[in-house]
């Protein structure tokens, strides 16, 4: 028996794969340019964007999962 948290995690991971796959299928040239741009971006900028995205995601999850 899986926990609700683990099921939510797997659903989130599945959504991530769907969105990423759709972006590659819809515009492979744009994704190639985005990856080249990421390679050229300094580590500190990528790290700040990554931390910001993680915090925003946690806040979104907290807002959506808190009891009303």
Describe the structure.
With 68 residues, the chain is an all-alpha fold. Helices cover 87% and strands 0% of the residues. The chain contains three helices and no strands. The chain has helices spanning 4-26, 28-40, 43-65. α1 (4-26) packs across α2 (28-40). The longest helix has 23 residues, at 4-26. It is flat.
Query: How much is the average pLDDT?
Result: 91
Q: Which structural class best describes the helix and strand composition?
A: mainly alpha
Poorly predicted parts: none
Element-level helix/strand string: HHH
**Helicity, in percent?**
over 70%
Q: Output the number of helix runs.
A: 3
In terms of DSSP E residues, the strand content is under 5%
Count of DSSP strands: 0
Shape: flat
Largest sheet, in brief, is: none
Q: How many structural domains are formed by the residues?
A: 1
In whole angstroms, the N-to-C terminal distance is 27 Å
Q: Give the oligomer, counting copies of the same chain as homo and different chains as hetero.
A: single chain
Computed over alpha carbons, the radius of gyration is: 16 Å
């Amino acid at each position: 028996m899986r926990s609700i948290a683990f099921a939510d995690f797997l659903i989130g991971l599945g959504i991530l794969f769907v969105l990423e796959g759709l972006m590659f299928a819809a515009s492979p040239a744009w994704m190639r340019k985005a990856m080249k741009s990421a390679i050229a971006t300094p580590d500190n900028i990528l790290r700040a964007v990554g931390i910001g995205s993680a915090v925003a995601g946690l806040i979104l999850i907290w807002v959506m999962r808190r009891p009303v």
